[in-house]
Amino acid sequence: MGTNRRYGSDLTDKAINAVLVRPKPLSLTEDEKKSTGEAVQQPPAEKAPQVLAWVRYPEWTVQVAGRVVAYNDRMVLVEWETQGGGTHQAWVWRSAVTIPKPGRPGK
C-alpha cells in the first residue's frame, strides 16, 4: 500500500480514532439560540473583538482566548485556535464572555 500524498502516511485506525474522539466544544442548542429572538450581527473581520470566553467541553469547562465571529445581546459565537493548529467555534451566553484587561491579551 502506498502513501497518501495529501494526508501523509499516518492513516492507521489508531490515528483515525484519535481524531474522531478528540473533544469538541459544546455550543448552545438550537432551542437556546432561538430563544433569544434577536438578530445576529457580525463584526467586520478586521475589527473582531478579542475576548476571553468560558467554553464547555463534554468533560470540563475552560476559558479560551479567542475572537468574536457573531453576536447579539444574549449570545456570542467565539472562535479560537487549538493547540494542534485547528480552530474551534462555539455559541456561548454573553455573560460567559469578557474583554481582556489591557496588558493581558489572553491566557
Brief synopsis:
With 107 residues, this protein is α+β, with helices and mostly antiparallel strands. Helices cover 13% and strands 32% of the residues.
- Output the radius of gyration: 17 Å
Alpha-carbon distance between the two ends: 44 Å
Count of helical segments?
Answer: 2
Largest sheet entry? 5 strands, antiparallel
How many domains comprise the coordinates?
Answer: 1
Strand percent estimate: 25-35%
Helical content class: 10-25%
Global shape: globular
**Order of helical and strand elements:** HHEEEEE
Q: Structural class per helix/strand content?
A: alpha+beta
Structure overview:
- The chain is α+β, with helices and mostly antiparallel strands and 107 residues long.
- The protein has one domain.
- 13% of the residues lie in helices and 32% in strands.
- Strands 4-3-2-1-5 form a five-stranded antiparallel sheet, with no helix packed on it.
- Strand 2 and strand 3 form a beta hairpin.
- The radius of gyration is 17 Å and the shape is globular.
- The model has no long low-confidence stretch (mean pLDDT 84).
Please name the defining characteristics of this protein.
single chain, 107 residues, alpha+beta, five-stranded antiparallel β-sheet, 5 strands
